[in-house]
């Protein structure tokens, strides 16, 4: 226990150490996080009236970000599957970064749900009347919190073993890895079912929503990891090979193609039938009765996703510059498509035929930026703590000398 507490203290201490770029980055994130906290306090006082949400459009930028971030958490699964199922060792040393991203992203998801509640104390109602298994919301609560705990255990155990210079016991983490793979698919499926199960919103009443969630998630998550690994490689001593980046590129490439194909299938189904239920899709892509607030956004997303897919297919994307451009375009394009482009149009028009457009307020934007800043702050701290341990720069032996003689590693080294 003493050694574990020492490990936690050293990780906390090193998270405050870095060069001027690290301090500048952390300072910017802290400022935005505090601005978001202040905006949330204003929302607590003034209620959801401080947001752009109305009785007609009751979900906005908070749930849009939540939907996108649930997909981003798939980065962990898309690193784990090649390593533990297909035995692709190129990604073995970088799996931990996907797991750490999943932890930070799920915390952000829970924060977005909290601010969307208006009054966080209302979450007690969910605990008092946990309507399981009838309510899809309770399934989502279990899926998100379970995935968070699984990734916390896997990350914590592997990093602590590296700190002690001890080989991890497969019995303590491999079963949880395979459970996490299934769980990663479940959080996207359950979240999609939350929308699909609302019969009064024809825009969501499609069996293809869950596969679209998975395809976009498997593109955006690894794309974010590609950018992260390059930053880690450039500014730390931890070495990440090009083979790992190219393997992730192939994953993003296939997922981006599937995502575009599924989007095309959805558009054909909506517009070819030309029924009354296509009103929400018409509002999103073409505008409806002169209301077209989301039209520029969704076509920007379509262009970004298309260009990113073309770049990923071209051989030039094996170069890091083109690959980085494709990843950024995919991340932004999928955020628009699976965020505002998926949530808001379902409420327009209302079941009564009203057309009430939604525009987020400055307060909403500040809260959203604050949560994003806090999540990136957490992820930066996680990476900052992990890299020295994984690279062997921060270990118990280096700080306090050899382990006790009754430790298996110490005995083996003494015998050697």
What do you see in this structure?
The chain is mostly helical and 416 residues long. It has one domain. 71% of the residues lie in helices and 0% in strands. It has 17 helices and no strands. Helix 4 packs across helix 8 (170-196), helix 5 runs antiparallel to helix 15 and helix 7 (136-163) packs antiparallel against helix 8 (170-196). The chain starts with a helix and ends with a helix. The relative contact order is 0.16.
Question: What's the arrangement of secondary structure elements?
Answer:
Layout: H1 2-14, H2 20-46, H3 61-72, H4 75-84, H5 95-117, H6 123-128, H7 136-163, H8 170-196, H9 209-235, H10 242-273, H11 279-285, H12 295-313, H13 320-338, H14 340-343, H15 362-390, H16 396-400, H17 408-415
Helix pairs in contact: 2-15, 3-5, 3-9, 4-5, 4-8, 4-9, 5-7, 5-15, 7-8, 8-9, 9-10, 9-13, 10-12, 12-13
What's the count of strands? 0
Q: Can you count the helices?
A: 17
Distance between the termini: 28 Å
The ordered string of helix (H) and strand (E) elements is HHHHHHHHHHHHHHHHH
**Average of per-residue pLDDT values:** 85
Radius of gyration using CA atoms only: 23 Å
What's the domain count? 1
- Quote the beta fraction: under 5%
Broad structural category: mainly alpha
Overall form: globular
Which blocks of ≥5 consecutive residues have pLDDT under 50?
405-416
- Tell me about the largest β-sheet: none
Query: Can you give the helix content as a percent range?
Result: over 70%
């Amino acid at each position: 226990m003493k050694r574990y507490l020492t490990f936690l203290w050293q990780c906390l201490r090193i998270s405050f150490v870095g060069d001027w770029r690290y301090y500048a980055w952390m300072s910017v994130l802290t400022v935005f996080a505090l601005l978001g906290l202040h905006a949330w306090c204003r929302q607590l006082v003034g209620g959801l009236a401080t947001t752009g949400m109305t009785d007609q459009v009751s979900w906005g930028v908070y749930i849009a970000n939540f939907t996108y971030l649930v997909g981003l958490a798939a980065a962990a699964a898309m690193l784990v599957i090649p390593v533990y199922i297909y035995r692709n060792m190129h990604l073995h040393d970088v799996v931990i970064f996907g797991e750490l991203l999943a932890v930070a992203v799920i915390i952000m998801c829970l924060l977005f749900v909290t601010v969307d509640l208006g009054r966080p104390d209302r979450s007690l109602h969910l605990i008092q009347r946990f309507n399981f298994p009838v309510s899809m919301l309770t399934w989502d609560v279990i899926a998100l919190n379970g995935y968070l705990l699984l990734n916390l255990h896997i990350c914590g155990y592997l990093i602590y073993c590296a700190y002690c210079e001890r080989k991890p016991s497969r019995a303590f983490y491999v079963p949880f890895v395979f459970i996490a793979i299934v769980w990663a698919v479940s959080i996207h499926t359950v979240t999609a079912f939350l929308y699909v199960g609302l019969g009064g919103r024809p825009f969501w009443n499609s069996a293809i929503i869950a596969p679209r969630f998975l395809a976009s998630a498997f593109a955006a998550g690894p794309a974010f990891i590609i950018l992260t690994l390059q930053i880690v490689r450039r500014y730390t001593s931890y070495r990440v090979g090009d083979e790992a980046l190219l393997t992730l590129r192939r994953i993003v490439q296939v997922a981006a193609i599937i995502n575009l194909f599924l989007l095309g299938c959805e558009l054909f189904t909506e517009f070819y039938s030309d029924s009354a239920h296509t009103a929400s899709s018409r509002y999103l892509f073409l505008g409806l009765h002169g209301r077209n607030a989301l039209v520029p956004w969704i076509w920007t997303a379509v262009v970004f996703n298309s260009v990113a897919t073309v770049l990923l297919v071209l051989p030039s994307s094996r170069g890091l510059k083109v690959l980085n451009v494709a990843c950024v375009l995919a991340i932004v394009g999928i955020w628009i498509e699976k965020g505002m482009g998926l949530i808001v149009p379902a409420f327009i028009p209302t079941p009564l035929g009203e057309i009430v457009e939604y525009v987020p307020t400055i307060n909403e934007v500040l809260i959203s930026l604050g949560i994003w800043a806090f999540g990136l702050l957490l992820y930066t701290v996680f990476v900052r703590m992990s890299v020295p341990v994984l690279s062997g720069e921060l270990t118990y032996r280096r700080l306090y000398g050899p382990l006790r003689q009754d430790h298996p590693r110490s005995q083996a080294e003494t015998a050697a």
